[in-house]
Each structure stands twice: as structure tokens, then as C-alpha cells.
Design a protein that fits this description.
With about 220 residues, the chain is α/β, with parallel strands linked by helices. It has helices spanning about 40-45, 70-80, 95-105, 110-120, 135-145, 165-185, 195; strands at about 5, 10-15, 25-30, 55-60, 60, 80-85, 155-160, 185-190, 200-205, 210-215. The chain has a 6-stranded mixed β-sheet with strand order 6-7-8-3-9-10, sandwiched between helices. A two-stranded antiparallel ribbon has the order 1-2. Strands 4-5 form a two-stranded antiparallel ribbon. Strand 4 and strand 5 (about 60) form a beta hairpin. The longest helix is centred in the C-terminal third of the chain and has 18 residues, at about 165-185. The protein is globular and about 50 Å long. The two termini are about 30 Å apart.
Length: about 220
């Protein structure tokens, strides 16, 4: 796939003929220097944007054939997101943040499911707290619980430990990989952290918008 954007009288190529397949259940890190196209690639894989050329297939569905509503529906059914900035709703408690996507999806027992997810991430004593009352690590745990509420077939994580100290970052990484293994979720994460990237079974290295290496490990995490 290729992604280009217009900048005045010129065209900037952000991703240049990047091509790969990711198998169900894989853990994949997208790594590279700032400006290499990592976050743009993540957005294309999730159907948040479309490539200028080429095709993206998500969960067996070609995204180019779908309109914006169709891509949103596919994401809602198959994808979870974890962001560096947590993206929690400040006016909702931890429990309500996790319940919200369940309620929107018409889940039969949103409260009980959200409570179990928060228990799983170690926050059963903090369910009635608002984001401002939680530490950064606790907020990211809420975000992970929300992301797995689907439960998703694919989890996209954009610098999920970037705003956390080293020890908390390791705890959050442990949690993501544990859930990845338990649920068979495909994990695709963007990171600057080489240590975190080597916990994935595979690393896609970008430089200048090109895929320069596709590294696979026999064992990871």
C-alpha cells in the first residue's frame, strides 16, 4: 500500500509500496524512527484512513470496498484500540468507560462484563473512580479493559507504554501479552521501545515510509 498527501504544490509520500500479511493470533511490533510512517500505517490497517494506492484487508474484508460507515462497523465488530494518551472519557467512571462500548453494541450484561474485565486488570477497587483520580498506569489498565470488551479479534496499540514510567510500562505490557495469549487476539503495536518490540514474535521496521525489514522470532513475550 502507498499513502500520499498533498502539501501545497507538492506530494508527500508517507508510505511507499508497503506490503505484508499478518496471521490471526500473531504479535507484531511496528518500529522505526519518528516520521517513518508507523502511526499512518496503523491507521490504514485499522481502516481509519484509506491508502492512495493498494489494498488493505482487515479480518478478511477489503477496506477499499467499504464506505466510512462500513469500515466503522467492521472496526466495532473486530478491533480494539489502546493509545498512548489513554483516550478515556473524563466524565465517566472507570466502570462506565468500559461499559460504554458494550452498551453501544447491545451486550446483554454490560455491567457484569465490565466488572470482570476491570477485575482482570486489577482495578476492582477503583471501578467508581474517574480518570482524573487514577494514575497513568491505572488509566491505561482501564483503556485495555475497554479495548478487550468486544472481545476484539485484533488489538491495535499506539505507543501504549509511552506515557508511563519503566516499571508501570512493563506491567502494562505484561497485561497486553497475557490477554493476547489467553484470547488469541492478534496484537499489532507501534512502539519506539526496542525491549517492548522484542516481546513480539515479529517486527516490521519502517524507514522513510518503506518497509526495510520483517524480523521473526521463534519465541517471544
Amino acid at each position: 500500500m502507498t499513502k500520499q498527501v498533498g502539501t501545497g504544490d507538492s506530494v508527500l509520500t508517507i508510505l511507499d509500496a508497503v506490503s505484508f500479511d499478518i496471521a490471526e493470533g500473531e504479535s507484531v511490533a511496528v518500529v522505526g524512527a519518528s516520521g517513518s510512517g508507523k502511526t499512518t500505517l496503523l491507521g490504514l490497517l485499522a481502516g481509519l484512513d484509506l491508502p492512495s494506492a493498494g489494498e488493505v484487508t482487515l479480518a478478511g474484508q477489503g477496506l477499499n470496498a467499504l464506505d466510512e460507515d462500513g469500515r466503522a462497523a467492521l472496526r466495532g465488530a473486530t478491533v480494539g484500540f489502546v493509545f498512548q494518551s489513554f483516550q478515556l472519557l473524563a466524565s465517566l467512571t472507570a466502570l462506565e468507560n468500559v461499559m460504554l462500548p458494550l452498551e453501544l453494541a447491545g451486550h446483554a450484561e454490560p455491567r457484569a462484563t465490565a466488572m470482570e474485565l476491570l477485575r482482570r486488570v486489577g482495578l476492582e477497587a477503583r471501578v467508581q473512580h474517574y480518570p482524573r483520580q487514577l494514575s497513568g498506569g491505572e488509566q491505561q489498565r482501564v483503556a485495555i479493559a475497554r479495548a478487550f470488551s468486544g472481545p476484539p479479534r485484533i488489538l491495535f496499540a499506539d505507543e501504549p507504554t509511552g506515557n508511563l514510567d519503566a516499571a508501570t510500562g512493563r506491567e502494562i505490557a505484561d497485561l497486553m501479552f497475557d490477554l493476547n495469549r489467553e484470547r488469541g487476539t492478534t496484537l499489532i503495536l507501534v512502539t519506539h521501545d526496542e525491549g517492548l518490540s522484542h516481546r513480539c514474535a515479529r517486527r516490521l521496521r519502517l524507514a522513510g515510509g518503506r518497509l526495510i525489514a520483517d524480523e521473526r522470532d521463534r519465541a517471544a513475550a
